[in-house]
# Entry
Amino acid sequence: MKRANAFWFVLGVWTVPVGRNALIAALDVGSTKVCCFVARPEPGGARVVGIGHQVSRGMRAGAVIDMETAETAIRAAVDTAERMAGETVHRVYVNLTGGRPHSQLVGVEMAIAGHQISDGDIRRVLNQAQARTDLGDRQVIHAVPTGYSIDGSRGIHDPRGMYGARLGVNLHIVAASTGPLQNLKVVVERCHLEVADFVVSPYAAALSTLVEDEKDLGVTLLDMGGGTTSIAVFYDGALVHADVVPVGGAHVTNDIARGLSTPMADAERMKTLYGSAIVGPADEREMVSVPQIGEAGEDSVQQIPRSMLIGIIQPRIEETLELVRDRLKASNADRLAGRRLVLVGGASLLTGVRELAARVLDKQVRIGRPLRVHGLADATGGPAFAGCAGLLAYAMRKPEEAEQAPQPAVLEATGRMARIGAWIRENF
# Structure
């Protein structure tokens, strides 16, 4: 990957921005598919110049269960994208759905003696906020300031240059279990790739599909993947909650296969072609052919009404949406989420999911598709690829956005380079 020639400081850490001619690569490692986008930044977004996607192997519910097969799938997807782009990928932004991501909001205040607020003050208050979190065996993935306060005045997005006696911050920390995170990192590194950053899947999908008004007024995004359904809630322009429910579209396929005694491949085909999450008036009359496991000949295919297939699908989708509703209520995030819901992910394409989600969650629902990403074909420009496109959006964050969403390395920077960075920033 080509590297940029310029650098900027972000809270005392050297950060390499995306250069005009640099390539960026996104790697979406899901439970049912592995996707790689290679893109070149351009005004207003990014142009995808390489695409590769493969059936996922060795993953379950977002976690690695077989390193060998997972590595093979990742290598195949990245190799296809590299060949199409005519470039070699060295660093990738990787999504994360495993590791039970956990959201925590922390608020702190500190005295600043009435002087003008500098980057050093912001760094200190962020460090204090992180020090008050109880992470246990988890590792910080995102640390996103949702708002600052000065002498009790809240709603400040950038306090630098202002004056006051006390500076406060509300920090949203998203952390995940260290084991699954390290397993995924090892698999990616075995493919001779460096992990530029991990991004929780719903956050990435939100960056590519949500419009600014939705993020400001309050919105919930559901990324309905194969092995998980992940949640992101935005309010006042910031991510305020993230969560993952370990149920997805693959569970629907498994229910069909078990309930109708049919092979998994045929269950997936029936779900895609004839499945629905809501019952229609003609479903009793419409018949579906169901191949039976281990049988051959004329007796190997059974005819069932479509309503029987829907009777298997609907309860699982309802259960998933009810779990999402309960998680939002338990976290109190539903108060901020408003009545807007955006669905992405392959499972969101199932007929009737939008209508059922509107009924169960009592929200206005739309299907999200990647925005500001050019060069995607119709097959890769839908909601199933919103997460991968969002990783590109994350990689192209402007410096000021990076400063307002510092990563763990930013928060923990206390070494010599951090002190040098702070001195240069405060004296030039």
